Request: fold
Amino acid sequence: MTQPYDLDTLAIRSGIHRTEFNEHAEALFLTSSYVFDNAQQAADRFQNKEPGYIYSRFTNPTVNAFQERLAVMEGGEYAIATASGMAAILTTMMGLLKAGDHIVVSQSIFGAAVQLFTNILSRFGIESTFVPLSDIDGWKRAIQSNTKLFYLETPSNPTMELVDIQALAEVSKNAQVYLVVDNCFCTPILQQPLSLGADIVIHSATKYIDGQGRVLGGAIVGSKALLKEGIYSFLRTAGPSLSAFNAWILLKGLETLKLRVEAQSQAALSLAQWLSEHPNVIRVHHPGLVSHPQFELAQRQQTHGGAVVSFEVKGGQEKAWRVIDSTQLISITGNLGDTKTTITHPATTTHGRISEESRVKAGITDGLIRVSVGLESLNDIKTDLSRGLD
Reply:
């Protein structure tokens, strides 16, 4: 969708609806319900005959402001905010699918998402087929007569593999299935999947959108017709809703998103180049590296390689843990997207609950370490990693 302002401006000015007090900052509406003028107005709002706020499980002015702002930044018509990134995935699936449906999923996705597709959705009669992310022909071969949806992350967590979104969008449209893209690693600053043909974009707003590790949040962005039909109805009834306070925090996060993500991405590329030359590092995964097998696609599809770097060290898990445990500055945590640099061992944490076979297929080895680069001095980050690497 064409907007009259640049992304920098939209991140600060969109979604603002001032009250009668004409406040400059976005208002925070901490209320569970709303008062009606009379019984008729209450009835009309509950029956969708009159627009207006009803109950904060599905209508809240602060949450709406966040939804509007993120939607225009992603180039979408509409957004639905949820309590977390996983809640966004679940809400999308429950809103679009039914028992007997089939979905095709990238085998390179977040561990909790794998659990959702294999252990939870399967209980409701929804079947999942996992395919290599970048194998377009593999996606085609996996399509069945009851396939309703493609789901993927690009770049993937944690091996930073990509897929050609535009090429996969052609496949999905020919098969008449929805293409759902998790854009958590890139955010709308580095990549806009809707403009490349995706139907829906998913976010864990907990990550870069907040950017300071404060609150949980998620979001679903796409066309109003698609999201309002089943997805919004599921959220309204089941209630995996974003709180007003968290929405207010995330609005503030969006204001500085471009500055943070671009600075962190530049630092991550420098760190990836430095790691590539270290004698105890086997390989480095970062789309900005010329050595990345999909470097040209990354240059075409993203504006930067992103702020996450993963690398494999010699010596497997023992050595990887030693590198992690030797850090004194970097935070050992499973979260990412923070202004503070974080480090984790995916095989035993974020992807520890999936089978060893699934980890191998996703390229998650015992020696793999994931670093989400923050805003500290790059020299200090290198020094901290060197304690264990050397």
The chain is about 40% helix and 15% strand. The chain has a mean pLDDT of 96. The radius of gyration is 21 Å.
